[in-house]
Write a sequence for this structure.
């Protein structure tokens, strides 16, 4: 039985844990307080283990993501324009993903009783205090106190300093890369217990709140699907049609193999070799563009993940009675864009990023179990749309750069990508 369980994909295991948790939540009566408290205790332990490496992982992932851009001399105009494209669409996705659910009011009818203690209430009160506290006077104190905004800004500063110094900063980059790998390994091991964590998180919630919560979560999931699909059709459709000047039929036909592979593997990084063939053979994009844009996109282009996290922030804020001011929303959008740079292009890579976001928003940490459930059910379409964004960028740069040749060496970008665990650009080999 244990051997059969280990052979199952983690996504399947999580879905089984979710299903069992939902069933038990309906079966167990509210009077079984001992069972409910035991489940909440296990859920809390899981949440603590999940949060344990959030700060080092977020910091190191963001630094590695910035370093993966490579040197300016190596990537030239291609990487610069690609970064503008990715950050612009990600910012648009964040805004789209947080304001549409706000207008729909998703989560207002849900009442969640969570397994773990609430995080500290967000201290973002006015714009002057926010700007003043962005630059940490003591970065180590930011880690100790859990000041996520200061940690993000410090990571950006360190990342661009390393990017500018290149070889001189390589020892520090090696250390950060090692810490990132260790953090990812610990998170990966913790994620093995996600089926149990999801079960023990969702079960007491349903046991105490009933079917209304299931309906609310289901509505949030369907809303997420709808927003992601509408975003992809409208935004990428307009970009491909009017900016890249490419017929939509040609684009859809060319990217279909890569999109289907991303849908099945839930990994934008693993899809890179197929995406390269589709872009080069189907859309006629030069290898100079694909060898830079696609690995870079797998690291920093997380439009659909940003929408998913924005929608869930709105849902959980409404469900938990957390009021988000306009300043809160602006800070969350900017933090979401920054976190997208360091989100690994692998299944469930957004878990740590969302854990950081809910702390910034002042949302209870106990929502993580529910988020992982929804994220798992959304992972396929989210990854597919992210890959479509990478391909739309390739089509756009093909039009903008035309037939110009840069003849630039991409070896430093390739090295940086390999350090980040993404891809060997020249060989097209995926390494996780």
């Amino acid at each position: 039985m244990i051997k059969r369980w280990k052979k199952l994909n983690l996504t399947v295991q999580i879905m089984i844990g979710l299903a069992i948790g939902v069933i038990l939540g309906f079966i167990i009566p509210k009077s079984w307080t001992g069972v409910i408290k035991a489940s909440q205790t296990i859920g809390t332990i899981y949440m603590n283990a999940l949060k344990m490496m959030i700060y080092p992982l977020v910091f190191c992932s963001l630094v590695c993501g910035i370093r993966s851009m490579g040197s300016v001399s190596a990537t030239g105009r291609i990487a610069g324009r690609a970064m503008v494209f990715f950050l612009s669409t990600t910012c648009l996705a964040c805004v789209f993903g947080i304001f549409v659910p706000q207008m729909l009011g998703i989560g207002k009818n849900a009442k969640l009783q969570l397994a773990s203690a609430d995080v500290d209430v967000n201290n973002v009160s006015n714009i002057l205090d926010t700007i003043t506290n962005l630059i940490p006077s003591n970065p180590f104190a930011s880690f100790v106190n859990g000041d996520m905004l200061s940690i993000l800004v410090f990571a950006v500063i360190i990342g661009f300093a390393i990017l500018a110094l290149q070889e001189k900063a390589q020892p520090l980059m090696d250390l950060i890369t090692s810490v990132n790998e260790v953090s990812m390994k610990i998170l990966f091991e913790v994620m093995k217990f996600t089926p149990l964590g999801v079960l023990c998180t969702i079960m007491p919630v349903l046991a105490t709140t009933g079917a209304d919560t299931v309906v609310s979560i289901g509505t949030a999931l369907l809303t997420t699907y709808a927003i992601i699909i509408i975003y992809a059709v409208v935004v990428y459709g307009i970009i491909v049609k009017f900016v890249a000047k490419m017929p939509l039929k040609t684009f859809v036909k060319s990217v279909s193999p890569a999109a289907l592979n991303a849908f099945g593997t839930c990994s934008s990084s693993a899809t890179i070799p197929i995406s390269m063939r589709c872009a080069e053979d189907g859309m006629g994009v030069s290898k100079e563009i694909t060898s830079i844009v696609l690995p870079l996109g797998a690291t920093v282009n997380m439009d659909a993940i940003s929408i998913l996290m924005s929608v869930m922030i709105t849902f959980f804020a409404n469900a938990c009675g957390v009021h988000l001011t306009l300043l809160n929303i602006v800070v969350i959008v900017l933090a979401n864009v920054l976190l997208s740079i360091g989100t690994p292009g692998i299944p469930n890579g957004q878990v740590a990023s969302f854990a950081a976001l809910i702390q910034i928003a002042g949302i209870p940490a106990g929502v993580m179990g529910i988020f992982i459930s929804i994220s798992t059910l959304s992972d396929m379409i989210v990854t597919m749309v992210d890959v479509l964004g990478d391909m739309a960028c390739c089509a756009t740069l093909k039009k903008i750069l035309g037939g110009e040749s840069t003849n630039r060496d991409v070896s430093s970008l390739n090295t940086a990508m390999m350090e980040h665990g993404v891809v060997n650009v020249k060989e097209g080999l995926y390494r996780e």
In short: Residues 209 and 371 are 17 Å apart (CA to CA).
